[in-house]
Amino acid sequence: MFVLDPGWTSALPDDLPPMPSLVAREAWQAKPGNAALMKRHRIRSITLHHTGTPQRPDLSLERKLFNLQLFSQREDQLAGGRTKPAWGDVPYHFYISTDGRIGVGRELEYAGDTNTSYDPTGHALIVVEGMLDSETFYPAQQASLRRLVLALAARHRVPANRLGGHKDYAQTDCPGQKIMDELPWLRRAVGDLSNRG
Description:
Blueprint: E1 22-23, E2 45-50, H1 61-72, E3 76-77, E4 83-84, E5 94-96, E6 102-104, E7 123-128, H2 139-156, E8 163-165, H3 177-180, H4 183-196
Parallel strand pairs: 1-6, 2-7, 2-8, 5-7
Antiparallel strand pairs: 3-4, 5-6
Helix pairs in contact: 2-4
C-alpha cells in the first residue's frame, strides 16, 4: 500500500505528477514485514540504488521480489564473506525491473535496510535492476524512474538537494554511473516541481 505522510496530505496541490502503475505486494505474494526488525520514519530524501547483480529479464518482477524477500528476511552470507542479519522485509521501497515495471517493496512508513554504512532513515529507497556501470539502463527503466521520483518528491515534499545516489552517502559504486548520470535531469525536474508550488 502506498502511504502518504498524513501531516502533509491536506496541503498537497491538486496538480501532482501522477503515481506510475505499481505492482502491489499482494501480486508478488509478499509475506508480512517483521515490524520488530524495522523502524518507522518520515520520508525526507529519495535515494537511488541498483541491484548490483546481473539483469534477469527472463524472470518476472513478481519472482524477483519474492526471491529478494526470502533473502532479506533471513541471515545470509554476502558475496564479500560478511554475514547479513535478517531484515524485517526487502530493503527497498520500490523495485524497477528491466521492463520498467515498478514493484512495491517495503512499506514506505518503515526505513529501509543496507549492507553499507549509512542510515537510510528518512530515505525513500528506489532500486533499479542491474549492474548499471556496465549493463543497459533501459529506456523503460529510465521512464519509470523519472515518473516515480517526480511523484514521490511531490507527495513527500522532497527538495532537489535531497535526491541522491547511494554513493552520495556510503563507500560504494551503487547505483552505477548510468543512474548517477540521470541525477542532474532528476534534480532539475524536482526543482521545477518545487518552483511551481
